[in-house]
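User: My advisor, Dr. K., asked me to get a structural model of this assembly before our group meeting. I'm new to this, so sorry if the format is off. These are the inputs:
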Amino acid sequence: MNSFDLTGKTAMVTGSARGLGQGIATALAAAGADIAAVSYSSSEQTLQSVRSYGRQGVDIVADLSDHSKLQETFDQALQLTGHIDILVNNAGIIRRTPVKDHSEKDWFDVIDINLSTVYLLSQIAGRHMLERGSGKIINICSMLSYQGGMFVPGYTASKHGVAGLTKAFANEWAGSGVQVNGIAPGYIETDNTAPIRQDPERTKSITERIPAGRWGKPEDIGGPAVFLSSSASDYVNGHVLCVDGGWMSR
Ligand SMILES: NC(=O)c1ccc[n+]([C@@H]2O[C@H](COP(=O)([O-])OP(=O)(O)OC[C@H]3O[C@@H](n4cnc5c(N)ncnc54)[C@H](O)[C@@H]3O)[C@@H](O)[C@H]2O)c1
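Assistant: The format is fine. Below is the predicted structure of the whole assembly, which you can bring to the meeting.
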């Protein structure tokens, strides 16, 4: 299946230190890609898996919500091989408080990294990709790109926004060899969902509503990420792929 092969490609994966970013970076390396891993903390553990597949990687520690440093961070990633073929916009946070108490700080902290960084970093990476006539951008969305959720208004707004950006960018760049798509994960076992999993009743009710009968693991996002990073998906544009054990079909 050569069309899924990522040999010779370099992927910049944000939020790669743990969770989904770690699962995605590992899967892309297994498919042949070198990895520029960018996170708030070190991605060394992720890069150990990357190297176990014979791929090279660079560990970039950066606060991606500092928008003034995004070009510098992208240029650092570029130094690994001289090209970035794939950008995975995965870094994100969530703040849980009821709407009436949701502070301005919580709102802007979430919007800054989950939405504005996706916009600005995609613009920077896109200029590089458009010049080369090829590239893949994958935005990590959410079921809350479609649903409202409870107690997470900033997160919901950010993820609806990311789904919108995915289509807006795809419409402009599809004809220039750059595919922009999204993945909407369901409930995945990561630090992001740890507080929910501490509540046994909530965990049970969520699990019962998932047709697959289980929560996802970071590696469940790996295969779809490889597909959307590879030439196998060259005619897929502006699509947000739900990887949710069937949650959105129910
Ligand atoms: N876990 C789920 O069930 C789930 C479901 C849907 C969508 N998502 C999305 O998947 C993405 C990853 O989530 P996760 O569950 O792996 O979360 P996580 O908290 O386990 O990991 C988040 C990663 O993002 C990085 N990060 C956060 N803020 C950053 C910043 N300002 N600068 C640089 N790096 C930063 C962290 O260092 C960490 O590596 C997020 O966008 C999240 O919204 C997760």
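One thing worth pointing out at the meeting: The longest helix spans residues 104-132.

User: Perfect, thanks a lot.
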